[in-house]
Amino acid sequence: MKSRSVIETFTADLLSHCGAIVEPAGDGLLDVVAGPDLNATLGLSDYQRLAFGPDSTHDDVAVIDYDSPLVERMGATVSTLGRVSSIIGPAATLKAVDAEAALERALTLQNGVFRCQGSTAVEARYVGFFFEYSVHADERVGGLTLVWVNPATRSVPRLMARLDFANCRDDSTAGTADFLDAAGQLPWTLATAAARLRIDPEISEFLMRLRRRRERDAHRLREYYEEIDLEIRRKLRRVGANEDAARRERDRLAATSAAYHSRVAEIVDRYQVGVGLTPIGVLLCRLPAYQIAVKLLRRSATSDVLFSWNPLDRRVDLRACDGCLAPVSAAWLCDKAAHYLCERCLAPCQECSRRYCRACSRGCPRRHDS
Predict the structure, then answer these.
(1) Could you state, in order of their start, the residue ranges of all structural domains in the chain?
(2) CATH number for the segment(s) 3-81
(3) What residues does 275 pair with on adjacent strands?
(4) CA-to-CA distance for 119 and 98, rounded, in angstroms?
(5) β partners of residue 291
(6) Model pTM score
(7) Measured between alpha carbons, how far is 223 from 10 in angstroms, rounded to an integer?
(8) Residue 225 — left, alpha, or beta (φ > 0 → left; ψ -120 to 50 → alpha)?
(9) Pseudo-torsion of CA 237, 242, 247, 249, nearest 10°?
(10) CA–CA separation, 127 vs 66, rounded Å?
(11) What digits encode the pLDDT tens for the residues 226-250?
């Protein structure tokens, strides 16, 4: 979309939202009729034509770009609007459920057991995060993704296809508590981990192409410098006792090695992958749901956690790993605190091969010899 189309669309939407009559008057032109209060706030006349293209020759046309005073005044108007958008979910009746049977279907523990402690009907607050992602190496790809999280139960529901985004509205009743988890923190880390997992399939083909090009370039570079190295070594054997010639060939050999390692570093830099996630919007959705209290048991360790059952897909939401916060479908429990973990967060240490919990300790608790 061109820049002028963006600002034209934004201006038309904002003025319409504030009660003005806005009509297209041609390519890059809007006719605006606003009330006295809005005219005074934005500095418009009773009937105003706005132009978003090249400068107009008519005196009564206001040309709008990002440096126009009107854009700055519109910013002040935006600051008075609602800060939260809520999406109205489909009508859902909360019927009685067998919480233990729902957990049996949804919860897989690889090395422990669970006990259902009962369920409670609640109005669950689901927070949706729009992320813009970009993946860049020698080329760049990007896009948008939306993830939903339930901060109260640290879960990642499957709501994407169940909600109609035409039902969004400003929500003046939403407060800070609607977006906080049980510890009183914003669920950014939970949403970021879910977003990273969500974009993995979308960028996998790009990463596969990148890996093939990197291996091809590294193979060609290795073959080129191996041939030079072998030729220098053959000359070094032929010069025999000629010390001056041998020294020159050894210098060439060292220079070739240094050049090879420099080119390898260039390939590493060229194909180094960076992934950026930028939050660009937040939605709130309130739905009737069940919170299910569960006790996790692993040997002598126990922990009390909450799971969420939502009525849209009629199943228990995926709970996040206590280590990396990624949603987990088949979990492991640690021996010390019965943390709910993905397989990577209970993987063996690379030095001593002992499994350890990444939620209990970020590094292996066993001391290693230097």
Answers:
(1) 3-81, 84-103+114-316
(2) 3.30.360
(3) 135
(4) 9
(5) 120, 308
(6) 0.65
(7) 56
(8) alpha
(9) -40
(10) 32
(11) 999 999 999 888 887 788 888 998 9
